Write the structure tokens for this entry.
Amino acid sequence: MKSLEDLKKMREEALKKVEMRDSDKDYRVVVGMATCGIAAGARPVLNRLVEETSKNNYSCVVTQTGCIGLCVYEPIVEVFDKDGNKATYVHVDSEKAAVILRRHIGNGEIVEEYTIDSMKK
């Protein structure tokens, strides 16, 4: 932070994040965007999620986070519902991202075959 403008920008970004948490949306979709996630292809996944959410008017907020701690499973997408329940999707690509939105956000159905639990079996 080097100026008052930098501080104002940081404040605005923090307020946006708080607003997303208090959103009236049904879901929060979080993409791991640390170095490991980006290297594994998380940027196109994030872009697809944002595009599809906007295009289909899904009731979710798409956001990003740092390292989730499961680098071997990147790109990782976590979907939280209003009750705090979480589904963790792993090895997500752009096509899987669209399927996750359509089935999980659109139909309320967890896409079991893309979850971390399915990879551990």
